[in-house]
Amino acid sequence: MILFRVVGLGLLLAITASPAFAVEPAQHTVDWYRTHQQARESVLRTCQNDHATDNAADCRNALSGAHAALADSLATTGGTDREADPAYYEHDAGMIAMMLSMCANGGVPQSWCSAARTASKNLPR
Fold it and tell me: How far apart are the C-alpha atoms of 106 and 9, rounded to whole Å?
């Protein structure tokens, strides 16, 4: 019984020490990717092209950096999303129709759909 435990422990140590299970450290931090758009976009293209890299540290850091950069851009524009404001559509029937079509097909934030619906109700009849 003790022999099996020793062999099992040795096997576990050998597997976890194997280079195949090694996690490659990230080349850059989230904050670095946040401020280096070109490099961030390049890494994200690579990661999106090969999902075997989804758990790579640089893929995760670049994605988190992209989210942080988006948050920064929203903060500098008053923290609002302009498409979520009915005034963004400025009585532009074509823009409203396009947004409502995109809403029907999904893939856009619900706040944009609500704003486009509100703007649509405000169109002159």
Answer: 51
pTM of the model: 0.47
> Domain limits of the chain?
25-79, 82-121
User: How far is it, in rounded angstroms, from Cα 78 to Cα 20?
Assistant: 47
Reported as a single tens digit per residue, the pLDDT across 60-88 is 888 888 887 777 776 655 556 788 888 88
Contacts 24+ apart (CB under 8 A), 85-93: 85/115, 86/115, 86/116, 86/118, 86/119, 86/122, 87/119, 88/115, 88/119, 89/115, 89/116, 89/119, 91/119, 91/122, 91/123, 91/124, 93/123
